[in-house]
Design brief:
This is Ribosomal-protein-alanine N-acetyltransferase. By secondary structure, the chain is an alpha+beta fold. The chain is built from five helices and eight strands, in the order E-E-H-H-E-E-E-H-E-H-E-E-H. It is globular and about 40 Å long.
């Protein structure tokens, strides 16, 4: 379910990271503005290596009842390149929910590929893993990401505010969610 996962769409293959993905992944995440709306530090190449090694370890621990982190590489079928990432994991604010996330290379944006990857990940979360609810955070200024969440059928609930100092990077993030029941009704 996690170690050998392979999600496939018309244009994408989405799979767990392998150690040999370091350079292609670093090329994507080091693009100018890739982290514009992501409240994290931009990793250097060594940081990407550590994230990938950590992701592999997390996939070995993941179960349907507890997802530690399910980081996936997005590969463009046409050119065989890693063009981004997506996945499922514990929400960054510690609310005890499962969060969907995604990011895609600037040269592959505005083609519906991020939506395609997010939709496949959402489907996998509900249909294969059996999650009851999936949520997402998106910066209120990140209009393309907000549109993706809406196109996934996720519902907007509120904008995050009044956070403690250590979580202040998430101030202004929009909270969206979708339950398995809502997902099934939309099919």
């Amino acid at each position: 379910m996690f170690l050998n996962a392979k999600l496939e769409t018309d244009r994408l293959i989405i799979r767990p990271y392998k150690i040999e993905d370091i350079d292609q992944t670093y090329a994507v995440v080091s693009e100018k503005d890739f982290y514009q709306y992501i409240p994290e530090e931009i990793p250097d190449r060594e940081g990407v290596r550590k994230i990938i090694e950590w992701s592999i370890t997390q996939n070995q621990k993941n179960t349907a009842d507890k997802i530690y982190k399910f980081n996936l590489a997005i590969i463009h079928k046409e050119d065989g390149k890693i063009i981004g990432y997506c996945g499922l994991g514990p929400d960054d604010l510690g609310m005890g929910e499962t969060e969907i996330y995604y990011g895609i290379s600037s040269q592959y944006r505005k083609q519906g590929l991020a939506l395609e990857a997010a939709k496949a990940t959402l489907e996998y979360g509900f249909e294969v893993i059996g999650l009851k609810k999936i949520m997402a955070f998106a910066d209120y200024r990140n209009l393309p990401s907000l549109k993706i969440l809406e196109n996934l059928g996720m519902k907007y609930h509120f904008r995050i505010s009044h956070l403690q100092e250590e979580l202040s990077d998430f101030e202004g993030q929009c909270y969206y969610s979708l339950t398995a029941e809502e997902y099934l009704k939309s099919l």
